[in-house]
Records
---
Amino acid sequence: MSDEEKIRPEAEPPVGRHAAPEPPPAEEPEKAAEAPAVPEAPETAAPETPKTPKAPKSPAARSAKPGKKKPVRSVRTTRPERKPESEPKKKKAAPVEAELDPREAERAYMPIRSRRDGRIGCMGGIMYAAFILCASILLAVFGWMAASDVLALNKSAESVEITLPESAFTQKTVDVKDDDGNVTGTKTIRVADMNTVSGILKDYGLINYKWLFQLYSRFSNAEAQLSPGTYALTTNLDYRALVKKMQTGADSQLQTLVMFPEGYNLDQVFAKLEENGVCSKEDLYAAAANAEFSYAFLEGVGTGDPYRLEGFLFPDTYYFYQGMQASSAINKFLSNLHYRITDEMWQKAQALNLTFRQVITVASLIEREAANDAERATIASVIYNRLNAGMPLQLDSTVVYAIRETGETTMSTELIQATDSPYNTYRHKGLPPGPIRIPSVAAIDAVLDYAHHDYMYMCAKPDFSGSHNFAKTYEEHQRNAKDYADALDKRGIQ
């Protein structure tokens, strides 16, 4: 193959309308036979060469019917001389009909729609308009119903009482931010389970749609504003008013007045709080064991044991919110005790080399043993004298406290010996681990201002008045004990 045949022309030069093709030279029959019937453009054009516009088709090609092909004579192409690159001349745009292939012209032809198609299009428009109208009506109705529930429109005013239980609240840790929005730390807050709360509100007719109230709560942060408790509400309250009235201290929250006498122990206090609907014993024990209370008289007292607060729940009459948080209820007692302890009391305790927990412990023993105020200071003297002498206190009241969970009520020598508890002051010297009940202010004063006597013993009087006979010696005490035992025998008391 010659060099001329290796280099194909980039484009076919146009052929005039009346030009006849050149006959192939006789001396090169093989080359003429090798030439293609129709010159083909190269598959990949050189990037630097602009595309040559297509030549217009000849009249013969335009007049030919689709599907019939005229035979094309083979022509010999010669390599055109390369001319210097120049800007290609703009050619006149050929008519559209000259550029379309007959098959493309067929596809471009579209029949006019029938009247039937026009009728379907009209019906579709009517159906679309009807759909838009129905959707608008439904949205309007839905919007009105939602607004009526949120704003409590056209609702009758009926009084209901609801209780948000403590179990519907959990602890959540959140970030603390300064005025510039920077995180400075974290804190733990109490949040409500809005699914539970919305269910309660719907059951009592206060709302109609749980999901809508939950959505409102999410945007208003209502979960962190609610408080457990019992509330008196009306059915004509809007969402905002409901959230505001279900908070501690709100005018809708019901209160109850509960009186706690001196001498109650922690179990009795918690039972009475539950009985009056303040909070459950389970929540109270959990709070007593684990809640943080920052009071000086609890300094050094660790967490984990609910009885660490024994003796510190000051006796008094209190107002409680029904269903309030357990730690808040306990704090009422502790706060009252805090304000009852004067600076003078602190100074006297320090002079006696006693912590205030020890003061409360001794006061609780006096509260249990004394039958009247006149004996309180004398009993305190007996306790101090035995402690200083290294003698066990041997108080029945401490053994009773140690066996309280067993249900035993009758004391005996065998029971005392069998009870292995640090509260058993017959077997263990010194003060018990902590108070055994709530002391009165009079008992605390008796500890701090005790009577200075040499009494080492005390025994109940045989008249069963609750008063005691005091003795300095063991022999004297034995005579007092025999008199009391004889009195028991006369009454048939074991």
---
Amino acid sequence: MLNKILSFYKVSAPSAEKLSPEKADGKYKRLRFQAFVAATLGYSLYYVCRTSLNVMKQPIIDSGVLDATQLGIIGACLYWTYAVGKFVNGFLADYCNIKKFMATGLVVSAFANFIMGVLGLWEGSAGVASASMFVMFAIMWTLNGWSQSMGSPPAIISLSRWYPLKIRGTFYGFFSASHNFGEGLSFLFVAALVSAAGWQWGFFGASLAGALGVTLIALWLHDTPESKGLSPVEVLAGEKTQEEYDRELLEKTANASDNSAETKRIQKAVLRNPGVWILALSSAFMYMSRYAINEWGMFFLQKTKGFELLEASSIIAVNTIAGIVGTVCAGWISDTLFKGDRKWPALAAGVIESVALVLFLYGGDGWVVNIAAMVLFGIAIGVLISFIGGLMAVDLVPRKATGAALGIVGLASYAAAGLMNIISGWLIDGHAVRDQLTGEIIQYDFTYVSAFWVAAAVISFLLPILNWKRKKQEIYYQLIKNSGVIKDSGVFILIL
């Protein structure tokens, strides 16, 4: 049974039929575009299944089913499982058929949302105890967390397999907009369903979005160029000649048993890379502030500034839509204006994010100030997700270890997001004003949790500066090859 599963998910074998150069170019461009669209839109629909609960916090709390502390723990279940899963699945994805791997995760995520919708209806009809609902929601959201970790690694690996180095940053920027599109769709589409039919139906809407994503991935995401009768992207992009590729193919065929060991050696080298771990810690604090808004922003607007559900969801959605500008521009600007150097735009984005967060939390209840804050916050977070949350780590490592690098950053990022959720829920409940007779909450105090969120944002952009004091070193492929650590990795840059 295990062998059948492993065989099902293994990387596609090269096609026996090799296309002629005349046919190869057109097919490569078409399949490359399809893979990009499937990875980007497919992952955006992953996000709908991940952020659906954020829209429903206020209705769920008001219904008395769960409180803020319980919802914080449930949210942490997703992020902590996601963190471990992204680390594990980041490594596994390097060995897997990315189409099958990514589709499987979204199937499970859609299923988890569907079951939570059913549980919500069941609670309304059967009067399920709050403690039981808490446990069942936590189990389903934990399952969702693991399945969510199967989305990002194969999607980004697809960009590495189908796009050359010289334009990868630009297309990674476009891909990163999938976060924003998915979050925006969740805040608008799911919020509309919740307002019209109740919070339970928000989960059903997310499940439907997941089913659409699975269909798109199945039709358009392709595993490798070689499986389609094409040369690898290095040859197609002119990074290597056909003769070099053919020679290396013969070596790999003669030493097939060494390929897995080679990938493992590369991944171990990534684990020892201090630059990756510094970025991982920086990303951890950035994700605290990012998900503070995505998880609790609507609740904050409703309880402190008096906005209704659809009003609050629309304001938060602005941040996700504006983020598309940040993510799309980030890769292009760094590739063209800064020649691949991400540190200065990343620093600027970190400062803007912190200022925008302060404006949102302390700038009053007017529409203009809150929307302006979300525009700035969204653009800045879009840039930071692209750089600190992914591209800066990918730049440090060879193609074969892309998933491993992302796994390390993802582990730190989402472990921190989970911790943020629990701390935030505890601070919100712990400092709420309660009726002395009934014990019911009559007013929420966000003073302490707001300070926590701002502090995380500031630390996130200060940490990468630690690398600037060290000498920037370029480690070239030949040096690594001669060391015997890596046989075929390409050039990469390590900041020590």
